[in-house]
Specification:
This protein is an all-alpha fold. The protein has nine helices and no strands. Helix 2 runs antiparallel to helix 5, helix 2 packs antiparallel against helix 8 and helix 4 runs antiparallel to helix 8. The longest helix has about 45 residues. It is globular and about 55 Å long. It starts with a helix and ends in a 7-residue tail after the last helix. About 5% of the residues have low confidence.
Length: about 280
């Protein structure tokens, strides 16, 4: 179990550090390309949908039956739907159009700008908290996937890592706009990503050393439900907003194809004992 924990911790750190990569894109760029951000979000959505339906849910149904597999899957959907009621909606790009607020005088415009920056800063902090809350179960998902097999853990880590890049942008962009500090933006976004390895550490102590195959498959099916809900509820709408519906849909299917190819190549390249 110790080696499994270390592997899961390493994989979750990749996901956490990818949040820092998203923040770095904000830091090094004067004006982030929001269309590219939307395409990246769509691509990550394709990865998430592919691994949710074609890997996790599919394996759960094949292993424990159609009814039980679906019950576990939709329990994950319902669980995360309830969680989202307590998580404020993240915003990738604050509204920076304040010119109209200066019509009544320069001083009033400055006051409005200060107020606007405070509001944006608040939204950035709330976004960081919200992303931390749903990064936490992502770390748990990587741990459970690593118990099932290295292939599952690697694919979960890949999908989550690519998904976390725009999350890092989601945190860093409003913080940078509000504070004009690249270091503060990078720091807060990076801290939100550390919730993922914390999820690994927690679940490693909560779960027993050995889980029955049925429970493990059911839990992974629930993870598939969580990831599917997260994708359809949060990622796709943002991808549509920033890249446009047609381009975002193309990015989604490209992401699905990429993940399907990665599932195939990992299947044939990893030793059989690692593909349980």
């Amino acid at each position: 179990m110790d080696s499994q924990v270390m592997v899961a911790l390493a994989l979750s750190l990749v996901g956490g550090l990818s949040t820092s990569l998203g923040a770095l894109l904000v830091v090094v760029s004067e004006a982030p390309n929001l269309k590219m951000l939307g395409l990246l979000q769509g691509f990550a959505a394709g990865l998430m949908l592919s691994i949710s339906f074609l890997d996790l849910a599919h394996n759960a149904i094949n292993s424990i039956g159609f009814l039980k597999g679906n019950l576990w899957f939709f329990s994950g959907v319902i669980f995360f739907a309830i969680i989202t009621n307590f998580i404020p909606e993240p915003t990738l790009a604050p509204d920076t159009n304040v010119k109209s607020k200066k019509k009544n005088g320069e001083e009033k415009g400055k006051d409005m700008m200060k107020k606007h920056r405070r509001q944006v800063m608040y939204s950035g902090i709330i976004t960081a908290i919200g992303i931390s809350l749903h990064n936490f179960p992502e770390g748990m998902a990587v741990f459970l996937g690593s118990i099932k097999g290295l292939r599952v853990g690697l694919n979960l880590a890949l999908a989550i890592a690519l998904h976390n890049i725009p999350e890092g942008v989601a945190v860093a962009l409003p913080v940078y706009f509000a504070t004009q500090s690249k270091w503060q933006a990078f720091k807060i976004a990076s801290l939100s990503g550390l919730a993922e390895p914390l999820g690994v550490i927690l679940v490693a102590y909560l779960f027993p050393a050995s889980l029955s195959p049925e429970i493990l498959e059911g839990l992974l099916g629930s993870v598939g439900g969580v990831m599917a809900f997260l994708t359809l509820h949060e990622m796709l709408p943002l991808a549509f907003d920033y890249a446009g519906q047609k381009q975002a849909v193309k990015a989604v299917f490209f992401g699905m194809a990429f993940m399907s190819a990665s599932l195939y190549f990992l299947e044939i390249s990893l030793p059989a004992e690692m593909n349980l």
